[in-house]
Amino acid sequence: MRTLEVTKLRDLTGPGHTDAFGIGGTDLGAATTAPDGRIVAVFGDTFERAGVGGPGWRSPVVLFADPASVRTGLVWTGAAGPSRDYADQVVAYRHGARIGGRWGGLVGGRTITTVLPTDVITLGDTMYLHVMACQGLGNVHWTEIHRSTDDGVTWEPTGTWWPGDRQAGLFQMLTWELGPDGYVYALTTGFRRDQGLLLHRVPAERLLDPSAWEGWGHADGTWGWGRPPTLVLPGAFGELCLRRVGGQWWLAAFDAGQYRVDLVPLPDGPTTNLHTAERLTVIAGCGWHDEDHACGRVAQPYGGYILPRSTPDELHLVVSQWNTGTNWPYRAMHFRARVRD
C-alpha cells in the first residue's frame, strides 16, 4: 500500500506573490511545459485586488514560471500580455456580452459572463487550451480550443468547439494528455461537480477535428473504442488533471462528493479500471477552523493540477481555495506529495 507525505511549499497567487502581474485574486492553474521550456500556467477568474470582485476582471490569464523552481515552489518570471508584466486576458471576449451567430450551430444570443480554462497541452511546437464559455458558474454554453504558436504569449481561436450539452453535459470539464501511441486521451465531466467521468481519445494530428474523437464504451460485456462513452467512474467530480509522469500515468481529481483531491495511479494507462484503482488523498477538505496546510487539510479546496517536472515518487500540484463566504482566501497554492510504499 502506498501513502503520501504532503507538504505545502507556498502560496502561488495573492498579495506578495503576484501583485507585479496585476493579480490579487485568482484560481485554477492548469500547467504544461511550453516549447521553449518554460512552465505555462493558466488561471481562471482573476481580479486586481485580493479576493473575488473589483477592478481588473479577466479570464483566462497566463503566468510563466522557471521549471527549476518546481521542487521548492514555483517562481513566476512573467505573464502573457503586451507588457509581459500585467497578466492580460488571453481569450478575446467581453464579460457579460451577448453573443449570437459566432459559434457555428448555436442559434440565438448567448450571454457570456466568463470563459474558464480546463486544461492546456503542448503538442510539438503548438500549445492548445481548452476553455468553457459560461453564463455563471455551472452553466456552460459551449467549449472550445484555442492555440498558441509563440510559447503561450498570445492565443487564437482554432474554430473547434462543442455545445455545452454534448454527452448530456459530460463533455465540459476536460483534461488531456498525449500517449506514446500518438493518441491524446481525455477524461471529461460536467461543470456542476455532481457527475462522473467519461473517457475519449483522438489522434494527436486530428485534435481539432471533432469527428475524430471517439469514446471508450461498454457493451455486450466488453469495453472498446469507437462506442458511445460509458461512465468509467461514477461520482461527483470537478477539476481533473491527467498526466504522464516519468512514463507513468496519473490522474489528479477533485472529488466534490468526498470533499477531497485525490491522486490516482493508472498502471494500465487511461483505460485502467477506475472502480478498483488505488486512490491517494493529497488534500482533505475541512472546515475553516480545522485547517492544517502542513498536512494537506484545506478548507473549500478544489483544482489539483499536476505540475511539469513532477516524478512518480514526488508529485507537485496546484490546488485552489476560495472562501465563498468572505471571498478571501481566493488563491492557488503549491503542494508536494511524496509517494511512500
Briefly, what is this?
Pfam families: DUF4185. This protein is mostly beta strands.
Please supply descriptive tags for the structure shown above.
globular, 0% helix, Tachylectin-2, Chain A, 341 residues, mainly beta, four-stranded antiparallel β-sheet, ten-stranded mixed β-sheet
Account of the protein in words:
The chain is mainly beta and 341 residues long. It has one domain (3-95, 110-340): Tachylectin-2, Chain A. The chain is built from no helices and 24 strands. It has strands spanning 3-11, 28-33, 39-43, 61-65, 76-79, 97-100, 109-112, 114-123, 126-134, 140-148, 156-163, 173-178, 183-189, 195-203, 214-219, 222-225, 233-245, 248-255, 260-266, 280-286, 297-299, 301-306, 314-322, 330-340. Strands 12, 13, 14, 15, 16, 17, 18, 19, 20 and 21 form a ten-stranded mixed sheet that branches. Strand 22 (301-306) and strand 23 (314-322) form a beta hairpin.
What proportion of the residues is helical, as a percent range? under 10%
Structural class: mainly beta
N to C succession of SSEs: EEEEEEEEEEEEEEEEEEEEEEEE
Q: What is the alpha-carbon Rg in Å?
A: 19 Å
Strand content: over 45%
Round the mean pLDDT to the nearest integer and report it.
Answer: 95
Q: Give unreliable regions as ranges.
A: none
**Shape, principal axes of CA atoms:** globular
According to CATH, the homologous superfamily is Glycosyl hydrolase domain, family 43
Distance between the termini: 6 Å
- Describe the main β-sheet briefly: 10 strands, mixed
- Please count the helical segments: 0
CATH architecture: 5 Propeller
Number of domains: 1
Give the oligomeric state: single chain
The CATH class is identified as Mainly Beta
CATH topology call = Tachylectin-2, Chain A
Kindly state the number of beta strands. 24
